[in-house]
Specification:
With 226 residues, the chain is an alpha+beta fold. The protein has helices at residues 17-27, 49-57, 125-139, 160-167, and strands spanning 2-4, 31-38, 60-69, 72-80, 84-91, 101-109, 112-120, 145-150, 170-171, 187-192, 197-202, 215-219. It has a six-stranded mixed β-sheet, with helices on one face.
Length: 226
């Protein structure tokens, strides 16, 4: 699963991390990538999302804080039921734009070793063009691989989607933003090889909890080395 949770602030708007966790638990994903994890929005006395989400959803977790300050932290997380045997967090930021990160992790799974890259790309075309080159470098030689996140990409010429599809054979194609009336395919799952991706979908029930819908995908068990 990949989901931009909008700081756990829904259309109410109010901070409600418990409802976010409840929706994720209904799907019971083995791997979940979350964007816009934001402790700055937490209510006084509420749990810090960077601490609470791993305890609530998985055993293993990596946090990538792209903005830190006295009022809290903002970034993304990769949470896994499977052991994380190696990981690194890469700065893919562009000068004078919002800081951005990419998490790369090697997991031990029932289908064998799997590399997962989770990210949240920038809002400008120039940013995304530079960032996608960095993502392709991170993915090189890593198959089987899954790349997930909020790619903020809707403009076809020179798009992230076009560049990544050349090197990662499979992808989801769901409209996820804005969640109430989805128009854009911002949130995606890419796979290499493409045969790794089986059935997938979105959860419309999430429209009350975030401005993005989550994308859920099943991966093929068995030999994924070709």
């Amino acid at each position: 699963m990949t989901w931009n949770i909008h700081g756990a602030v829904g259309h109410n708007p109010r901070f409600d991390l418990e409802r976010v966790v409840a929706l994720i638990r209904r799907w019971d994903p083995d791997i979940v990538a979350l964007q816009e994890v934001d402790s700055r929005r937490a209510l006084a006395g509420a749990a810090n999302p960077f601490d609470y989400l791993p305890r609530a959803l998985g055993i293993h977790a990596i946090g990538a804080r792209s903005i830190t300050g006295a009022d809290g932290d903002y970034g993304q997380m990769l949470i896994s039921r499977f052991p994380i045997v190696a990981h690194d967090v890469h700065d893919i930021s562009i000068p004078e734009r919002e800081p951005r990160r990419a998490i790369r992790a090697l997991l031990t799974t029932p289908i064998g070793p799997l590399t997962v890259i989770a990210t949240h790309l920038g809002l400008s075309i120039r940013e995304r063009r530079d960032q996608v080159r960095k993502l392709i470098d991170l993915a090189a030689g890593r198959a089987p691989l899954v790349m997930v996140g909020d790619f903020n990409d809707w403009f076809w010429p020179g798009s992230v989607r076009k560049a990544l599809t050349r090197v990662l054979g499979g992808r989801t194609r769901y409209r996820t933003y804005p969640s109430r009336f989805p128009l854009f395919r911002f949130d995606r799952v890419y796979c290499c090889p493409g045969t790794l991706l089986m059935k997938s979908g979105v959860d419309p029930a999430a429209r009350a909890l975030s401005d993005h819908l989550p994308v859920i995908a099943d991966l093929r068990a068995g030999d994924v080395s070709s």
